Amino acid sequence: MDEQRNIGSLLGALDDRISLLRETNATLDAIAQALFKSWFVDFAPVHAKQQGLPPEGMIDATAELFPDGFEESELGMVPAGWRIAPVGNVVETVGGGTPDTKDASFWEPGEHCWTTPKDLSGAQAPVLLSTERKLSTKGLAKVSSGLLPAGTLLLSSRAPIGYLAIASNPLAINQGYIAMLPGSALPPLYMLFWCKQNMDTIKGRANGSTFMEISKKAFRPIPVVVPPHPILEAFVNVASALFDRLTENEKQALTLSTLRDTLLPRLISGQLRLPEAETNLKEVA
């Protein structure tokens, strides 16, 4: 019984650590989303300057980037000098495909990550660290969009619509995604929070008889506010620091989850003793 209690205590500590990492990530994500909403939805810095007040919690150099007035647009009042454009004009979007699953030469040897929206189901953070399946080089050649770079934003476009994640590694995608590439006028981190903020609009453009799907053709005309580059750069500087920490936390949480699932049956069966398990934990920590 003492051994069982000690095993339970060890695994409970692992679960607590995983939960803390996930709670921290939820907070980091919420902070970044709140910042996006303040700057690009509520336009709080502009309202403050319009009233002759310094924008709250903002250094002077960043505050100077924002105008002190608004102008009319197709989306209503927006900060002066900002523009409205269709998403497809300011973000490079691509789709993917699925090589013949019956042809083993497309899948073996597995050399390149290939993702379907299933990889994002149950995801605890908006980052994709690994994929269930991989393609061979021959299989990759069958996907017209090829290997997309790390930092690509993935939006599941069907079954269901709305999973979001930024790829941490180069990968190929199946036809269930709209992928938004780095290097566009609006960066993936901006678009991640824009998609979250505008998910109802995105889903409202979907159609289909068997299941609802939003095509690239339907997605690209959605109007989006385009701030000046210096303001985008200031946002990305803050948001990327939060996102980098979130990514590292998620990597650690997945490592600990794998370790827990590996240790449990071995500890229960007596194949592994507690001192050895504790040594393994210290190595991970």
Task: Explain what the structure shows.
The protein has 10 helices and 12 strands. A hairpin with a 3-residue loop joins strand 8 and strand 9. 29% of the residues are buried. The mean pLDDT is 91. The protein folds into 2 domains: 2-82 and 231-284, Helix Hairpins, CATH 1.10.287; 86-224, DNA methylase specificity domains (Adenine-n6-DNA-methyltransferase TaqI, Chain A, domain 2, Alpha-Beta Complex). It is globular, with a radius of gyration of 23 Å. The two termini are 27 Å apart. The chain has 285 residues and is α+β, with helices and mostly antiparallel strands.
Main attributes?
globular, three-stranded mixed beta sheet, 285 residues, 2 domains, Helix Hairpins, Adenine-n6-DNA-methyltransferase TaqI, Chain A, domain 2, alpha+beta, 10 helices, five-stranded mixed beta sheet
Topology:
Layout: H1 2-40, H2 44-50, H3 60-63, E1 70-73, E2 76-79, E3 83-86, H4 87-90, E4 93-94, E5 112-115, E6 127-128, E7 133-135, H5 137-140, E8 153-157, E9 161-167, E10 172-173, E11 177-180, H6 188-197, H7 199-204, H8 216-219, E12 223-226, H9 229-269, H10 274-284
Parallel strand pairs: 5-10, 6-9
Antiparallel strand pairs: 1-2, 3-12, 4-11, 5-7, 8-9, 8-11
Helix pairs in contact: 1-6, 1-9, 9-10
